[in-house]
Specification:
There is one protein chain. By secondary structure, the chain is an alpha+beta fold. Helices cover about 15% and strands about 15% of the residues. It contains six helices and 16 strands. It has helices at about 70-80, 150-160, 220-225, 265-280, 305-315, 335-350, and strands spanning about 95-100, 120-125, 145-150, 160-165, 195-200, 205-215, 250-255, 285, 295, 300-305, 325-330, 360, 375, 400, 415-420, 430. The chain has a nine-stranded mixed β-sheet, sandwiched between helices. A hairpin with a 6-residue loop joins strand 8 (about 285) and strand 9 (about 295). The longest helix is centred in the C-terminal third of the chain and has 18 residues, at about 335-350. The protein is globular, with a radius of gyration of 23 Å.
């Protein structure tokens, strides 16, 4: 498989990780803004004003505190509630992957022919992905934890495309942002190999000419024909206004559809088209199976994030982690979700180091017509610039503190340093007394501890 060049601020290196599985920005005047990590440098005051009576007694979240996490939840809620159909500069929403872990696969071996480096997520805002009767958030697949991607970065760089409903991206070329592959499985015409080739028999797409093959781009037939705005739409793919939740969906472009060629994000158009579609037939679609009646506004959309671009951002020492991932979230009231969010925070810190990506709560009972769902998390292990952000604190003398695959603390108690034992051991580092070495772990470009 031919590697593609990457977009953005000096991203470099090859990542050996991705995410397999079926998937479910604020944008200003500058069409290509630099990714912003968080609202920490700007004081935000978010007040949602409404004249509707139902908001008087609706469940809403309070404004955040003056802390950094308080500013973060206010910022996320402003993105969640800020979309306006008549204002292309308004926020489109917040991209979240509901997930159990923070593991990705990229540049890895073929797995069932699935496209490589594909992360599936959904865009949430106050007009879609909400329950038809309570107007509370409809969390994808009713899961309880997730990854909140930096929305600016999604629309400019890490995001590839967006589908009105489930895009069934496990069999689409261009890492999930194209048409269905011509072949299922790990063959040359499958989604994993992602090849655009000429044929000796072009009418029947037979007799591949191998010397002509290259990675699909945004102009390749198997990509361009499933773009919602093309004049040459694939015959099996309906226009957005005609699509049902069970149809093969066309996609809207994000900035990273094909990273060597940065594109203008179409997220605002995507949201506008989704809202127009879900309002047809009163927002209801009849399903002739065990699902019974499906409400379009409740059904998930799919946003595809490029694991290679995301991973290079996280590994780049000149890019802050929160430029790529704004937070981890858990659904409030679910202890398992909180535990999974803490585990993802721990893994991100272990794999990528500081700064620690924060955790926020997600109130799935709010009326999103009146309030965003994000709240400051409570009952979490203390997070600071020193101790690890999970129960147990730092390791004591002779306990493990590092090494490939380490799932223990990544720091040592005061007076101890983390040292490989023996010095060339990549799999075991422990806390030892040595006043000549720094107490903060140093890592190489691959995340390994530097002894």
């Amino acid at each position: 498989m031919v590697s593609s060049n990457l977009l953005c601020v000096g991203f470099a290196g090859v990542i050996a990780f991705s995410l397999h599985g079926c998937g479910g920005g604020a944008s200003g005047d500058d069409p290509t803004p630099r990714p912003t990590a968080s609202p920490a440098a700007t004081t935000l005051t978010t007040t949602l004003t409404t004249t509707t009576d139902f908001c008087a007694n609706a469940n809403t979240v309070p404004p955040g505190s003056d802390s950094e996490n308080g500013k973060l939840v206010d910022w996320l809620n402003s993105l969640y509630t800020g979309y306006k159909a008549d204002d292309p500069a308004s926020p489109s929403g917040v991209t979240i992957r509901v997930a159990d872990d923070f593991s990705f696969f990229c540049n890895s071996a073929c797995h069932n022919g699935y496209p490589d480096c594909r992360i599936s997520a959904s865009l949430y805002n106050h007009k879609m992905m909400m329950m038809h009767d309570t107007f509370s958030p409809a969390v994808t697949m009713s899961r309880f934890a997730g990854i909140v991607f930096n929305q600016t970065t999604v629309e400019v760089a890490t995001g590839k495309c967006a589908y009105l409903y489930d895009g069934a991206t496990f069999n689409r070329v261009n890492r999930g942002c194209g048409c269905a592959a011509r072949q299922v499985g790990c063959g040359q015409q499958g989604a994993y190999w992602n090849q655009d080739c000429q044929y000796g028999d072009p009418v029947n797409h037979q007799n591949i000419r191998p010397e002509t093959c290259h990675n699909n781009t945004e102009t390749s037939e198997d990509v361009e024909r499933c773009w919602c705005k093309t004049e040459n739409l694939h015959p099996s793919t309906p226009r957005p206004e005609d699509a049902t939740t069970t149809d093969q969906q066309c996609f809207f472009r994000a900035g990273g559809l094909y990273p060597p060629h940065p594109l203008q994000s179409e997220f605002h158009d995507f949201v506008k088209a989704r809202l127009a579609n879900q309002e047809t037939n009163g927002g209801i679609e009849e399903i002739k199976n065990v699902d019974g009646v499906r409400y379009k506004q409740e059904y998930w959309n799919e946003v595809v994030v490029d694991a290679e671009v995301l991973g290079n951002m996280l590994r780049n020492p000149n890019v802050t982690n929160t430029n790529a991932v704004s937070a981890f979230m858990y659904v409030e009231g679910n202890g398992d979700g909180k535990l999974k969010a803490v585990e993802m925070q721990k893994k991100a810190f272990h794999d990528y180091g500081y700064p620690i990506i924060p955790i926020v709560a997600f109130d799935a009972t709010v009326d999103v017509r009146c309030s965003g769902p994000f709240k400051e998390a409570s009952g979490l292990p203390t997070t600071s610039a020193g101790p690890a952000p999970w129960e147990g604190g730092c390791s004591s003398e002779f306990q493990q503190c590092g090494g490939i695959g380490n799932q223990e603390a990544d720091c040592c108690e005061d007076g101890l340093v983390c040292m490989a034992d023996p010095p060339d051991n990549l799999f075991w580092s422990s806390c030892q007394k040595n006043e000549t070495k720094p107490t903060i772990l140093e890592r190489d470009d691959f995340g390994h501890i530097v002894a």
